Amino acid sequence: MRTWLRTITLILTLTCLGAAWTAQAADPRTMQFPPLDFKIPKAERVLLTNGTPVYLLQDHELPIITVSAMIRTGSAYDPAEKSGLAALTGSLLRAGGAGERNPDQLDDYLEFMASSVESAFGVDSGTVSMTTLTRNLDQSLAVFRDVLFAPRFDEKRLTVARQQLQEGIRRQNDDPKEAGDRELTKAIYAGHPLGVMPTEASVAALSRQDLIAFHRRFVRPDNLILAISGDFDRERIVASLNRLVGSERPTSVLDLPAIPSVPVNFRQEVLFIPKQVNQSVIRLGHLGITKDDPDLYAVRVLDFILGGSFTSRLMMEIRTNQGLAYHVGSRFDVGRRFTGSFSAETETRSDATGKVIRLITSIIEGIRKEPVTEQEIKLAKESIINSFLFGFTSPASIVSQQARLEFYGYPTDYLDRYRERIAALTREDLQKAAKRLLRPDAFKLVVVGDEKGFDVPLNQFGTVKKVFSD
Question: What's the rounded Cα separation, in Å, for the pair 318 and 11?
């Protein structure tokens, strides 16, 4: 697989050098090259004896195998009074020992084999991943299986993990950027589990039995998908997986908690976090889209033009032309299970706070009112299409991408047709999407900073609510 990628890179390099040599003094900005014909390598999908889907992709260049389990779980399923439960459960799957080995024994065993097993639960998914040498596959797979289905949730490790999480909560306002990000998320998803954040009290209330019950409910063979790549023998690994994972049988019908739809709340808010710093953190946004939105592809191109590239409108005006920020950007975070969000962010000196807020808002309003230029859409589409192959630079990334399509319910041809759908977009498509999906009049605006240094009072942008003070 790496040989294949190096070959592609070499061909591209030689093509460029050859064209440059023959053109000699030609302007590189006007040089033309034939389109790259890139086809995504396909992984094989098999079912274990218990119905668990497995995606397989062989690559014998190095004696290494990677295994990843994608689990439908996450903090979105935390009970409100037990926020932080998914995060602790995901962390302790691996860190708390598994099977017959306590945490220290598990650490030593994996180190001896030069293998690694990691686990973590996010918002709407959890992962358990493993990397091992080919010769240690059976031993490492046995550990992987124990971490998945027989975690020990060691009480001492739980105490340490709980204390670390609580300390993180106590210090969560130390970083102005993190504070701004958190409050924007809470404002956009107010009244929904996605907007609930762990507190010291909710974490303190979590017990080992809570973790056991959460694990039992979500980590099951009928609620996960496996992705495997590397130097393996197909028949041998399928047999091993059937023995270690396929033998696991659910004892009850899968019953995931019902998650309500995200409330539609396009209402302007201004949130102020007082902090004595000489630079303001600015965050603004509102609800976005899901993966099934008809303007999904238009949004990808809009992202590039508006605030997702070094040549974006936000970057060129606020950083390059006016020198008001080092970093500025925006993006649609497309929701895969739940409605996603649109957000814009930057940091600027205190006495430019109001000016920058107005600039961001006016630039976003501008992309709604007028179609993007031909040059903008051409650059955006070419950049997105040409960078597409870099999402498939390793066997692990290839097999994970394809497993993720099934995990989140994407169409099977999503990746195959992605580039042609991007290429087919017009300026009118982008303006239609911008008008429908961008709502500057309904931004949730979060500012972290010292109001004594602001160039204008924040109440010029709406009724101000103070979130907390130093």
Answer: 39
Q: What is the DSSP string of 35-93?
A: PP---PPPPEEEE-TT--EEEEEE--SSSEEEEEEEES--GGGS-GGGTTHHHHHHHHH
Sheet holding 269-274, edge to edge: 328-333, 341-349, 279-287, 444-449, 269-274, 464-466
| Residue found by looking up tokens 């498509």 in the block | 429
| Closest to 279 measured CA to CA, from 359, 352, 328, 184 | 352
Q: Give the integer Cα–Cα distance in Å for 7 and 90.
A: 39
Q: How many CA atoms lie within 13 A of 165 on its CB side?
A: 26
Helices 414-423, 296-306: inter-axial angle, 10-degree rounding: 60
Residue ranges of alpha helices (H) inside 219-259 are 234-244
State residue 10 phi and psi, 5-degree precision: -65, -45
List, in sequence order, the alpha helices (H) in 79-207. 85-95, 103-112, 137-149, 155-170, 176-188, 200-204
Look-up of token digits 């290839």: 398
Quick: pLDDT tens for 47-106: 999 999 999 999 999 999 999 999 999 999 999 899 999 999 999 999 999 999 999 999
Q: What is the pLDDT of residues 191-212, one digit of tens each?
A: 999 999 999 999 999 999 999 9
Nearest residue to 432 (alpha-carbon basis) of 239, 282, 299, 280: 299
b/e map 226-251, b = 16+ CB within 10 Å: bbbbbbbeeeebbebbbebbbebeee
Residue at token pair 């051409």: 378
How far does CA 464 lie from the centroid of its chain?
A: 31
**From CA 210, how far away is CA 214, in angstroms rounded?**
6
Structural domains of the chain ordered from first start? 44-244 (3.30.830.10), 269-392+421-466 (3.30.830.10)
